[in-house]
Amino acid sequence: MRRIFPGWLLVGAVMVALMLCGTTIVVSTFGIFTAHWMRSFGWSQGAMAGSLSIFLLSTTLAVPVAGVAVDRFGSRRTAIFGVTAFAALLAAVAPSVGSLPSLFLFYALLGLLGAFTNPIVYIRALSAWFDRRRGIALGIAVAGQGLGAAVLPPLVQYVSESAGWRSAFHLLSAGLVLIVLPLVLLFVRDDPAALGVRPDGGVRARPADGDAAGLTLAEARRTGAFWIILIVFALFGLVNYALSGHFVYLMLQRGVGTLPQIAMLLSIAGASMIGGRVLFGWLFDRYPLPLVGAAGVLCGGVALALLLGIAAIGPAAFAMSVLMGVAMGAETDLLSLLVSRYFGQRAISRIYSWQNVSFLAGAAGGPPLFALLLERFSDPTVPILVLIALCALSVLLLLLLKAPAHAAAACP
Fold this sequence. Notes:
By secondary structure, the chain is mostly helical. The chain folds into 2 domains: 6-195, Growth Hormone, Chain: A, CATH 1.20.1250; 217-409, Growth Hormone, Chain: A (Up-down Bundle). The chain has helices at 6-19, 22-41, 45-92, 100-114, 120-129, 134-163, 165-187, 209-212, 217-221, 224-253, 259-284, 289-309, 315-343, 348-376, 381-400. The protein is globular and about 60 Å long. The chain starts with 5 loop residues before the first helix and ends in a 12-residue tail after the last helix. Pfam families: MFS_1. The chain crosses the membrane at residues 7-35, 47-70, 79-98, 104-123, 135-156, 168-188, 225-243, 263-284, 291-312, 318-339, 351-374, 380-401. Residues 10-406 form the Major facilitator superfamily (MFS) profile domain. It comes from Rhizorhabdus histidinilytica.
């Protein structure tokens, strides 16, 4: 009987781990918890929204530290620390939240420790275990965030209604300790050579020296590709969070469907994001990364164009939701692959952290910028057109992207 390649066990473990990573838990459950806090404490939505911005800011500050930790100690040891510390935070600090200052402090700590549970922790290990199949491996692994976004909201809502919101945090903590931590201990390994196997299960020899060694952070910063990727992912973060942060508001303001119907569209987008990650992961392994990435961004641009003309729930609304999800899935895979293919393994986590910070900075600025545009123009048409223009700029930059000299021969 043929033995399962341990790299696929790593992929499965990371997929489950990312279902309960910091970003997945906080972003997917924020609306559920705020509804219960509004009921329990009488806090306004506007006041509580500041905690999410604090979370994004603290995550942005912690990501470079997580990148250094992974490059120095490896994915396995960093993940063990991150999962343990994050679980302890959820169990010990969440129950003490009872005022807005304590809520802001809690979300700041969630960002600082949650960064050590996010995809950046696992990218190095996944890139070491997979070369030719790296795209599909990353696509499957990162799909865990989409699965978590689909599963956690109804689960947290059920537990919060039946046993209280504090019990929901205890459940999330237990999931990290009882499910994620054992999977990390069993299956997350930094180097396939330690188990006597090669990347891709021996299908292909060890990557070329340019991929295995690669550039230092300082060397990467001296390439044009580094800065183009930085700008592109800042634009991705801005567009994605500007839309997701105001999607429900836009639909309700224009009288497009009821709240349950809009929630259904978001569920469709979440499911499509999972499919998009796997589909584009497969495409990334076969075609040039910038070209496939540009196609993913175009899906987002078309979704925004459809949003301009939607007046009721129907085929156009469903198509828009599918394209939204596909675009988000493609963009997530693209960042990991561009960094590993273009800059190699030597400082992959440090370099990835810079690009991730640019995405988070764009994400933090997207919602307030879009809100300002909505306030300036009474109709959402102009703000949406601005987002479409930013998608077009992203496509242009991707098509201009060239791999650094050391990586040009290795890139598909």
